[in-house]
Amino acid sequence: MATMRWLWRQLTSMRIALILLFLLALASIPGSIFPQRGTSPLRVNEFLKDNPTTGPILDRFYMFDVFASPWFASIYLLLFISLTGCVLPRAVDHYKELRSQPPAAPRNLSRLPVHLQWKSNATAEQVVSDTAAAWKKRGWRVRQGEDWLSAEKGYTRETGNLLFHLSLLVLLVAVGYGGAVGYRGTVIVREDAGFANNVTQYDTFAPGRMFGADDLPPFSFELTEFESTFQRGGQQNGAPRAFHADVLVKDDPKSQPRPVTIEVNYPLRTSGITVYLVGHGYAPEFTVRDADGKVVWEDAAVFLPQDSAFTSSGVVKVPDTVPQIGLQGFFLPTVSEDFTNGPVSKFPAADDPEVYLSAWQGDLGLDSGMPQSVYRIDTENMERIGIEELAPGETWNLPNSAGTVEFTGYRQWASFVITKDPGKGWALGAAIASIVGLSLSLLIPRRRAWLRVTTSEDEGNLIEVAGLSKTEAPGLADEISQLAKLVNAPEEKL
User: Fold this and answer.
1) Which of 75, 92, 109 is the last residue of a domain?
2) How far, CA to CA in Å, does 451 sit from each of 3, 331, 457, 461?
3) For residue 308, how far is the Cα from the chain centroid?
4) pLDDT tens, position by position, 29-40
5) d(CA 194, CA 284)
6) How high is the pLDDT of residue 463?
7) Residue 176 domain-assigned?
8) Are residues 67 and 120 both part of a single domain?
9) Measured between alpha carbons, how far is 300 from 111 in angstroms, rounded to an integer?
10) In terms of domains, do 391 and 326 share one?
11) Could you tell me the sign of the dihedral formed by the alpha carbons of 258, 264, 266, 272, in that order?
């Protein structure tokens, strides 16, 4: 039992709580360095493939599942227990202290850090009663004796300290609850295309441990138009100035569509879900025909931006030909010939769009059952058959009588982050409360002051005023001087 009590005292000490808080912040770093399975499973697979030696070792220590790992959960739980065991007893003690009276005046006030004394003809009863009333008006809690007065202020300092630590507890609970019952997903939607809130519609989907697919609210939206504006000319040529997505939202299958404009910092909110606009790009449109002229692929392919001028890369996979065809390429919104680096885009707006395609023929590997990235082609079992530059409306006759590829135009796409976090309101409130509590604990000083009247039959009574600071905050001497003025202390004594 003695060992358990010792362990409990150590766990609930402020020193251990600070250490655990530091460890929690330190443990979060790998989650930002390495891709996580919950949000980017394909990137994790690519990392393991590219790092066959270190990858399995990192995976053994949950580097790709940091926030779901046993060691992260252990730190989180220990921090919660430590704060609970540290704060709650202190809160009880503080409550008792608030209901108690200030301590009685010491016998020898001259030993205190700040001490003033002078003679007065006023009686002890008069001095004590008048001083008590005056000090109360200045916000001091007082306790009266026959010839002495005790006062104290600054209880709010400890209240702020407790508020700060209680807010951390609420923050931990809110974050844990939101992560357990909420979810986070990403999706790319092209113009004139839509999204229905279904797990299969997400590009990445990270649900909480207590969240089920049936809990998804049945809302949907269609991206009708995406507009982007860039700086033209000047030192910031090409810098983004504004972009927004016009969507038609249906809050449920039976509701009527309503127009909404989603912008950065102005998300869509519906059914407890928040939809953020986080990015955009271009999706060139292609029509692919086989050797017989039959259309085997006709759609817009999402190309991902590679630089600030929106030089974008992407692929097209055509499995319905024998042999199969794969297209790798770059979309250049405003093409510029660079004799060093090759064709690049010189401006992010689509002023002069072109695509540069590399055609491959062979086995795309789609029948292997292994997951593949939609933005990469596995060319291990394929042969490159040609390279071509196309402007909108142009057609490329593929070598080996493989068919044709027509670049018909382009659309824009927008990427969205869709989240449900029922604990974020509590987390925000706790964060604000923690700042308030920390400010109170740092800015409000804790003071004690005393007055004692020693009666004398000659030359009047001796009045003493002394003070003590329970913190290292400066200004105690000035504050005691102000209290002494309320007792009519002579100027030369201040």
Assistant:
1) 92
2) 47, 84, 20, 13
3) 25
4) 998 888 887 666
5) 17
6) 92
7) no
8) no
9) 86
10) yes
11) positive
